[in-house]
TrEMBL record:
GO terms for biological process: base-excision repair. It holds the Pfam family Fapy_DNA_glyco. It comes from Rufibacter radiotolerans. Belongs to the FPG family. Its EC number is 3.2.2.23, 4.2.99.18. This is Formamidopyrimidine-DNA glycosylase. GO terms for molecular function: class I DNA-(apurinic or apyrimidinic site) endonuclease activity; damaged DNA binding; oxidized purine nucleobase lesion DNA N-glycosylase activity; zinc ion binding. Keywords: DNA damage, DNA repair, DNA-binding, Glycosidase, Hydrolase, Lyase, Metal-binding, Multifunctional enzyme, Zinc, Zinc-finger. SMART domains: Fapy_DNA_glyco (SM00898), H2TH (SM01232).
Length: 271
């Protein structure tokens, strides 16, 4: 599933390839399933228009246009993007294609068809409608403090709440908590200000690292927990953890379920 780092990579790719090119045609393979607006309205808003910029909040991407309407893109389980010229190069799972006047195409790819395209008047209007918090990549200590205020729930599921830190997915939350040395089931209202600051810093640093590596996880620093994750391949120990060790203390990384989500942590570093 594309997470914030992947979507940020897509956003930068679109900036480099698909801006300021008049749109001459819009194809949508399955409009009833993929579009959140009527196909005629979607085409009317985009034909003769052009993309002028991009914006992202969490895993939600926005394509700004010269004439006002903004295209919203959510990538579902398998979404991706492509830019090409020849019809023979059309990717297999191109579900929506924007044809430019210069002969090039920009495509929204989605093998499992869970992605969605739509229109909105403004990014802010969309954010309020969906109740999205401040983007996790730039989340400040003050914003995180406000989001966690008086909450007694475990910190792990709160990090996955898009009203608090949109863009933090399951593995990212585990990595952030490992880097911040916080136990995943720690009640949020027990965090001290210095710990919230450490947590906000870890959120930004983990996401910045992932974006810089273009979400190629094997390129992450050696001290990252992600290298000790099971990824459904490594054998598990009798205690429920993997046979991989903590990159800090060499203790066996453990796996448990927190609010129904598989959670990896170090029982020594995250007390």
């Amino acid at each position: 599933m594309p997470e914030l780092p992947e979507v940020e990579t897509y956003r930068r790719f679109i900036d480099e390839t698909s801006l300021y090119q008049p749109i001459r045609e819009v194809e949508v393979q399955d409009p009833k399933r993929q579009l959140q607006v009527d196909l005629d309205d979607f085409r009317k808003a985009l034909l003769g228009n052009q993309f002028t910029g991009t914006h992202r909040i969490g895993k939600q991407l926005f394509l700004l246009t010269a004439q006002g309407p903004i295209v919203t893109m959510h990538f579902g389980m398998t979404g991706d993007v492509a830019y090409y010229r020849d019809a023979a190069d059309t990717p297999r799972f191109a579900r929506s294609v924007f044809h430019f006047e210069n002969g090039f195409q920009f495509a929204f790819l989605d093998s499992r068809k869970f992605g969605r395209l739509g229109l909105t008047e403004s990014v802010e209007a969309f954010r309020k409608q969906k109740k999205l918090g401040p983007d996790a990549l730039t989340l400040t200590t003050e914003e995180l403090t406000q989001g966690l205020a008086k909450k007694k729930s475990a910190i792990k599921p709160l990090l996955l709440d898009q009203r608090i830190a949109p863009g933090v997915g399951n593995w990212i939350a585990d990595e952030v908590l490992f880097q911040a040395q916080l136990e995943p089931e720690r009640p949020a209202n027990t965090l001290q200000p210095v710990e919230v600051d450490r947590l906000a810093t870890a959120i930004r640093e983990v996401l910045e690292t992932a974006v810089a590596a273009e979400a190629i996880y094997r390129d992450f620093p050696s001290h990252y927990l992600i290298h000790a994750r099971e990824w459904d391949e490594a054998p598990t120990s009798t205690s429920g953890g993997t046979h991989l060790n903590c990159p800090r203390c060499q203790t066996l990384i453990q796996k448990k379920y927190v609010s129904g989500r598989a959670t990896y942590f170090c029982p020594q570093c995250q007390v």
